[in-house]
Amino acid sequence: MRQSKFASIALCAAALGLGACGSSGGDDGGGGEAASAGDYGTGLELGTRVLSSAKVGAAVAPWYRWNNASCGFEVAEDHPSEYRADVREVTGGDAKIGYMHYGNTDPFGIDNSRSIERVAKEAGMELDVYNLRYPSRTEPNNAANSAIVKRNRGLIQANLDVSLLPGFHDIVEGEGCMPSIQLYVAIEGRPAMGNHWPDVGTEIGEFVATSARERGWSPRETALVQCTDPDNGPSVNAMFETVKRAVADSDFGLAPGDVHDIVCKQSESQSGYKRVTDWLTAHPQYRHVAFTAIDSIRMQEMIRAIGESDLADADTLTAAGADDESSRRSVRAGTQDMSVAFFGERFGEYAIPMLQDLMAGNAVPSFLGTELVQLTRDTIDDYYPGG
Predict the structure, then answer these.
(1) What is the pLDDT of residue 4?
(2) pLDDT digits (tens, 9 = 90+) for 351-368
(3) DSSP string, 177-197
(4) What UniProt keywords are attached to this protein's entry (predicted)?
(5) How far is the C-alpha of 108 from the C-alpha of 113, rounded, in Å?
(6) Alpha-carbon distance 224 to 146, whole Å?
């Protein structure tokens, strides 16, 4: 197992005179903090860029830097004005890292995994892959302990149940002294990347309001139904509030009683289908209904329930985040009206640079958001040509 953080402090202090620990310097990560510059990072050294910079959709403050002496993250007061997601070749230091996916159970997650594995290889980083087996409540800690045994120096991890994170961090930081990038979910005090969920909600809300108005719907005959999932935490579910805000700010306002948040847990089989079917049965009074969801997984279940209802296609709107192959097929087929593209097949071009920066002692945003694009039948070929 890796030495404890207290042993790491002692070893680092002894080696400082030889420049054997801390960051490689460089021009990517800002200046020093109260601690010695040698305390930051894990000793990774970076060279030239090997891939074109990915387009950043959001870089949320505060910024963090990894302090390898204290085995924890610190707020970085000195950092670049903008974040560049540059994948660079490794020129020195231990570049063995771990990637923990939630199960590779859906096209979006599989796209993420393939991208991270591809980009790590491009950068010359050795990658160990772990399966968190969501919704397992034990496998995340098992994976964390395995990462220590395998001597990973940093992690990219996709825990979807935020209630497990305190114990998980106790292992990877307290025992393994390794920085990690959280995927999908913004968490306080640690860096994360994915899509900026409030912006996703705004995209969906503006689409719903504009489309409903263009179709000539009456707000008094319209409902907004949103498939939420409390297991994903408040940072993800924040999108549903910005959906409501965007609709309310438009000239297609809905009464509060016509907005319905239902719970569709990914951890429960066919939850989206069952909850939407129940809602449609209980609310026959609406002539028009707009449906929103976090991701394609739930939206596909919602679409099935809608297809078995008496609602005509012209009287429903369907829009969701976390675009993947299944949602793109639905958009092309006309069964899903809009999908917010997160470009899951490029996630590695964001996550790997963040982890590289942390390991090299540089500062990164608390949340790095991907580019967001509305995919409809009119626009999808601009981004995914040829079907």
Answers:
(1) 38
(2) 999 999 999 999 999 999
(3) ---EEEESS-BTTB-EEE--H
(4) Signal
(5) 9
(6) 45
- The topology (CATH level 3) of 5-195+346-371 is Rossmann fold (3.40.50)
Lookup: tokens for 380: 């999808």
Q: Which two tokens stand for residue 196?
A: 């900026």
Q: In this structure, which amino acid lies at residue 30?
A: G
In angstroms, what CA-CA distances link 331 with 112, 201, 300? 21, 18, 11
**Is the model's pLDDT at 24 over the cut of 90?**
no
CA 69, CA 348: separation in Å to the nearest integer? 28
What's the CA gap between 302 and 264, in Å, rounded?
10
From the list 223, 221, 174, 229, the residue with the least C-alpha distance to 197 is 229
Tell which CATH classification among 3.40.50.720, 3.40.50.2300, 3.40.50.1010, 1.10.3720.10 matches the domain 197-341.
Answer: 3.40.50.2300
Q: Encode burial over 61-89: b for 16+ CB neighbours within 10 A, e otherwise.
A: ebbbbbbbbebbbbebeebbeebebbbbb
How many of the other CB atoms lie within 10 Å of CB of 250?
A: 17
Asked whether the whole model's pTM tops 0.90, one would answer no
Tokens for 150? 């395998």
For residue 184 the two structure tokens come to 């999908």
Domain boundaries, the chain: 5-195+346-371, 197-341
DSSP track, 121-171: HHHT-EEEEEE--TT-SSHHHHHHHHHHHTT-SEEEE----GGGHHHHHII
pLDDT score at 386: 82
CB atoms within 10 A of CB 11: 13
Higher-confidence residue of 133 and 22: namely 133
**Which pair of tokens denotes residue 269?**
């089989």
What is the Cα–Cα distance from 24 to 230, expressed in whole angstroms? 41
Angle 135-136-137 (CA atoms, 0-180°, nearest 5)? Answer: 115
Reported as a single tens digit per residue, the pLDDT across 166-215 is 999 999 999 999 999 999 999 999 999 999 999 999 999 999 999 999 99
* Sign of the CA dihedral running 342, 344, 346, 349: positive
